[in-house]
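Lab notebook: predicted structure, single chain.

Context: the supervisor wants predicted structures on file for every construct in the current expression panel, including those that have not yet been purified. This is the next one on the list. No modifications to the sequence; it matches the entry in the shared construct table.
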Amino acid sequence: MQNILVVGGAGYIGSHVAKDLRENYHVIVYDNLSEGHREAAGGCEFIHGDINDSSVLNQLFESKKIDAVMHFSAYAYVGESVENPQKYYLNNVNAAINLLSAMLKYDVKKFVFSSTCATYGIPAYIPINEKHPQNPINPYGASKVMVERILSDYCNAYGLKYIALRYFNAAGAHPDGSIGESHRIETHLIPLVLKTLTGEKDAIHIFGDDYDTPDGTCIRDYIHVCDLADAHKAALELLLQGGESQCINLGTGLGVSVKEIISICEKITGMKVPIKTSGRRPGDPPSLVASNGYAKKELNFCSKFDIYETVKTAWEWEKNKRY
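Prediction complete. Output recorded below exactly as produced.
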């Protein structure tokens, strides 16, 4: 079996990808557990380490024949990136360069990168395709753009082949209940709404209900985390088969508003969500929706979970979380 190194494989998206890959590959999860959970990497070989640590990385690449690397270990809190950009550039950019240096040293030339729609900034048009200008409005998005540009340069100079996957809004949990969303600081809408129904939060805040959208609230493209995992597996296999470097959006192509998410949560749970409405947050665009035609073409990608099923898996996880 080929050895796939999943960096950040104990985190939310990384753990779902690692679980999906286990059937066909030997998966090595490498994680410092600053944001991830050891339990989420169950069933995989686990190495505790930081990609800033060259000695541990070199030891890993020396002892294992790694066929490809998948990178999920970036910090991803937009607000925190504004307050502490140094933390984000050191981890998201410097550490990524350190990982790539180890790969080049040991002649590992296949790389799947966890990127984001935050690289686009405020959309000039909807739906957003891969040709949309990249003008990030926060250090988090900027750090991802920097790594994408580094990957392009490394591809040209060293023959590194990569696929950067620009996620829209990851959501949901594995249907078997074994892994799901459990963040140190929760900022995602669906788990925040559900936490009001488990009593962890007293109300959900709607930041602006006067946008130019059908119900006045922001619209986002929610993609189930297992659909993301399927797309990562397809990207990995494309690279292993000799595919070329590229960047690909991952979304459903369908937008759902904040009020619609709340309504779906109420329908699934049979409970009323307490709501507080306040003013808009700076930098929140009215709508962020992916054009997913390129993902269909290159990865044969098609989302299997609709928004109702996505929220349902998130609710089952929220009620019975294992970590």
